[in-house]
Amino acid sequence: MRKIILFLIIIMLFGFIILFLINQDKTKLVNTKSSRVNVVAAENFWGNITSQIGGDYVSVTSIITDPSADPHLYESDAHDALAISNANIIIVNGLGYDNFMDKLLLASPNSNRSILKVEQVLNVTSDNTNPHLWYNTNRIAEVGLAIKNQLSIKDPQDEQFFTANLNKFIDSLKPILNTINQIKIKYPNAPVGYTERVPGYLLTNTNLNVVSPLGFASAIEEGNDPSPADTNAFEALISNHKIKVLIYNSQASSQATKHIRDLAEQSNIPVIGVTETLPLNEPNYQTWQLDQVNLLLTALGG
Question: What is the CATH number of domain 175-300?
Answer without folding.
Answer: 3.40.50.1980
